[in-house]
Design brief:
By secondary structure, the chain is an alpha/beta fold. The protein has helices at residues 10-14, 28-32, 70-79, 100-110, 152-168, 245-264, 273-283, and strands at 64-65, 85-92, 116-123, 139-145, 177-181, 185-187, 199-203, 236-244, 288-290, 310-312. Helix content is 25%, strand content 17%. Helix 4 (100-110) links the parallel strand 2 (85-92) and strand 3 (116-123). Helix 6 crosses helix 7 (273-283). Its cofactor is Mn(2+). Mn(2+) binds at residues 182, 184. The active site is at residue 274. It is a single-pass type II membrane protein.
Length: 319
């Protein structure tokens, strides 16, 4: 059955037209920017960082969230007593099982403390959760078995489709908000209700403060993820995004169809699913943008932030 019987093509959805595995290899942006494992390229004529800033608002008027400022405190107060149910989803395949206990234990301490949270672990190895994590009040863990997905490219092609299926059953009937996070991350400081919004994206830590011409958007016109030179405000990481279940379902459906369409045509976007995520977020601007505090890499490119809240374990700086 077609996911979009009312649309002629996946592009109709993306552009709003109406119609009747082993551990990760280096991130694709390193290749796109001419970097090797996160080290700064030497030709600074190509990329010149802008002056450090801490903007509180996007050009379209929605908040950029820094966890400790007054606006974030107001956002936490707004959502704190509404009885919101939130899901936190992560994909665990192959050797990524080594990160699952650390991820969940740190989330128990720092992710939406005091709120109702369901953890959804999509995995090809349910035994990776043994021994079980002890959860606090109003916390629940659900394992969603998936087929084995050998190879990072294949996993990247299927991740959005897996998200669509998981939201359809069981997530869609169980929570109000869903956040998708890479499993090789650790929560190291409070991540509260300030992150909640209809459609939430996170600024890429290594591209924060960079000029628009440094963003590794897909540039091949044959790709459905292609971004023109006059498009785009920010570059977002795929390591954390979320929002209302209905909004993330729509996002994942569109991105999944475009990925499959490109694959059928022999096209692979250079940033894999992150390219399609950024294409979607250009056409459907986030209502809440999280600062790099919420997806931090310890690398030579990432600028300092007031607080590191979620830290990537798979992107530690080499010493």
């Amino acid at each position: 059955m077609a996911l979009f019987p009312f649309c002629k093509t996946p592009a109709d959805l993306l552009y709003g037209r109406k119609a009747g595995v082993g551990v990760k290899s280096p991130h694709p942006i390193f290749h796109a920017l001419g970097m090797d494992r996160g080290k700064v390229m030497t030709d600074m004529n190509v990329i010149k960082a802008a002056e450090p800033q801490t903007p509180l608002e996007t050009p379209w008027g929605d908040p950029i969230v820094w966890g400790d400022n007054r606006k974030s405190a107001k956002r936490r107060a707004k959502f704190a007593h509404q009885g919101i149910r939130t899901g936190l989803l992560a994909l665990v395949v192959g050797t990524y099982a080594q990160f699952v206990h650390r991820f969940l234990s740190s989330a128990e301490t720092h992710f939406l403390p005091g709120q109702m949270v369901t953890y959804y672990i999509l995995t090809d190895n349910p035994n990776c959760l043994d021994p079980p994590i002890r959860l606090g009040p109003n916390r629940e863990l659900k394992v969603v078995p998936i087929a084995e997905l050998p190879g990072w490219d294949r996993l990247a092609r299927r991740r959005m489709a897996l998200l669509v299926e998981a939201i359809r059953n069981p997530i869609g009937r169980e929570v109000d908000y869903i956040f998708c996070a890479d499993i090789d991350q650790e929560f190291v400081a409070p991540v509260g209700e300030e992150i909640l919004g209809d459609l939430v994206a996170t600024l890429h830590p290594e591209l924060y403060g960079m000029p628009r011409n440094a963003f590794p958007y897909e540039t091949e016109e044959v790709s459905s993820a292609c971004v023109d030179d006059d498009e785009g405000d920010y570059y977002y990481t795929s390591e954390l995004y979320g929002g209302l279940v209905s909004e993330i379902h729509k996002l994942a459906r569109v991105c999944s169809l475009l990925i499959l369409q490109d694959h059928a045509n022999g096209v692979t976007a250079k940033g894999l699913e992150e390219s399609y995520l950024n294409r979607y977020l250009i056409d459907h601007r986030p209502t809440c943008v999280l600062s790099p505090e919420y997806s931090w890499w310890d690398s030579g490119l990432a600028p300092e932030v007031p607080v590191q809240r979620i830290v990537s374990l798979g992107r530690q700086r080499e010493t």
